[in-house]
Amino acid sequence: MKTKNYDDLFDKYIQSKKIYESIILIEKGTGETIFSKAYGKKDIDSPIIAASITKMFTAACIFILIQQGYMTLNDNLLNFYEPAYLKGLHVYKGKDYSCELKVSDLLYQTSGLADIYEEGKNSVKKQAIISDTFITFDKNIALTKEKDAHFPPNYKNNAHYADINYNILGDIIEKVTECSLERVFEKYIFSKLNMTRTYLPVSEKEYIPMVYYGDKQLYRPQFIVCSKASGGCITSARDLMIFIQAFFHGWLFDKKILDLKLYKKLQLSMFPIYYGSGYMRVKMGGFSTSFLGQGDLIGHSGSTGSFAFYYPNKELFFVGDFNQMKYPTLPIRFVMQLAMFAP
């Protein structure tokens, strides 16, 4: 009966929106497959754009490097950058907080930095929909400096989702390891977990899938390549399942480093999402789920329709992709409903 519910829900989402290809995989923590279904040209091993799920890969590497003594969560950004480079990055009500930012502020999305990807009439996302765009890390920093921050670093219970936080974390990883981010990901995650279909592309010569925006197909290889630590990975449903289980089971790092009690509520436009140690938390049983379900969903979704979530209450893992940019809340609403059907 539960499998039929999953099947019916999947079909409903496919039919109600402009979804041209999709994949879903549900497993227990034991590795037993509960449900799997594909639509269009997708299958369990098809390349998909991980988009912001990449942030979990970046967070995992930060945790590994902390355990190896490369850094701490309390390290100030001045440990990695000259004051002149940081100056003007974080300005709130006329005061410059740039040199007070810490690694933890970036990881937990509590820096208060503006998000150039989503914010403004000429946001990076809007530009990327129109045409392919490559933005260097330095340009990311410069564009962020043009916008006022939303609050001081680590202010009360505030959090503001911004790709720049993870772009900086990715740059810090490269600085402390003296290796490219793609090599660090490969060494600490992909090779270790035998994720043979996952990679961080560094040029247009590598395969990068197209994504739909409504009924329009977009091919944006330069934008994917420059997204790196915040959204640049290419993966598959099978590999995503391996990773999400490894992340929360502690197969990559000591899971004690994941503070499962420390979550910050994101900006209203991200409702009902909270942010933790490199991942999202969606609380079940509230208004957004008609007061049905219990516990939390923890994991990440991506702007291209990808998702990877863990439901601890039922020890279930949900991964998949809708390959559709027009409806960014679609994967989260879908997974919430999947969790409500969980036996």
UniProtKB/TrEMBL annotation:
<dbReference type="InterPro" id="IPR050491">
    <property type="entry name" value="AmpC-like"/>
</dbReference>
<dbReference type="Pfam" id="PF00144">
    <property type="entry name" value="Beta-lactamase"/>
</dbReference>
<dbReference type="InterPro" id="IPR012338">
    <property type="entry name" value="Beta-lactam/transpept-like"/>
</dbReference>
<protein>
    <submittedName>
        <fullName>Serine hydrolase</fullName>
    </submittedName>
</protein>
<dbReference type="GO" id="GO:0016787">
    <property type="term" value="F:hydrolase activity"/>
</dbReference>
<dbReference type="InterPro" id="IPR001466">
    <property type="entry name" value="Beta-lactam-related"/>
</dbReference>
<feature type="domain" description="Beta-lactamase-related">
    <location>
        <begin position="30"/>
        <end position="326"/>
    </location>
</feature>
<keyword id="KW-0378">Hydrolase</keyword>
